[in-house]
Design a protein that fits this description.
Helices cover 37% and strands 18% of the residues. With 206 residues, it is α/β, with parallel strands linked by helices. A hairpin with a 2-residue loop joins β10 and β11. α1 packs parallel to α6 and α6 runs antiparallel to α7.
Length: 206
């Protein structure tokens, strides 16, 4: 099975690194990294990753993972080539997935009807005609979305379970020692803290 991780400037590194560590742990999986060109791509916090393929050279794959960005509105404004590639490759995939605000790119491409995303981007997903869920992982046919950043690990584990079974998923989870403690979400914290966080994320999009 081939899993392709999408790279673009200002992506959030953990959005694809987390799912990569989960999915690529399965021996039958081959990982690829696709971008507009073969030039190294810089994440929003400075991690630089080198693609293996371009949108022009890779036209089919089994799994697509689309990361989000801390600057998702800027990314959406400059997403033409990526969105077009997603529309082109989606019919060939067994699973098309997103993490964090990556679901807004799937929505921009018209590929998803129900999804989750980072709490700060729920309105941006909703205005694109998507039913927004606050769940950590959402399956919408063959499209799977994970909420913000670390939820990409949960999404990938659910995907591994769906594709390879519960035993394999459990082995991968224990292998990476993923046991988040304590559970905490945007909707469960005090309103004043939530409002401050929302303001900070909104200010990034100016």
């Amino acid at each position: 099975m081939e899993a392709t991780f999408v790279l673009y400037p200002n992506m959030t590194a953990l959005d694809f690194v987390g799912p990569y560590e989960v999915i690529a742990s399965v021996p039958v999986v081959t990982a690829r990294f696709v971008a507009a060109t073969l030039d190294p791509v810089r994440s929003d916090n400075g991690l630089v990753v080198t693609p293996t393929d371009t949108f022009d050279s890779l036209k089919s794959t089994d799994v697509v993972v689309v990361p989000g960005s801390g600057h998702w509105r800027e990314v959406l404004r400059d997403s033409g080539a990526l969105v077009e590639w997603l529309r082109e490759v989606h019919p060939t995939t067994k699973w098309t997935t997103s993490v964090c605000t990556g679901s807004t790119l799937l929505a921009e491409a018209g590929l998803v009807s129900k999804a989750t995303t980072h709490w700060a981007a729920r309105e941006d997903l909703e205005v694109r005609g998507v039913e927004v869920s606050t769940d950590r992982v959402v399956f919408d046919g063959k499209v799977v979305s994970g909420a913000g950043v670390s939820a990409g690990i949960d999404m990938a584990l659910r995907l591994v379970e769906a594709e390879f079974g519960e035993v394999v998923a459990q082995a991968v989870q224990v292998g990476i020692e993923y046991d988040p403690q304590p559970p905490r979400s945007y909707d469960s914290i005090p309103p004043e803290i939530a409002a401050g966080l929302k303001g900070a994320f909104d200010s990034r999009q100016a």
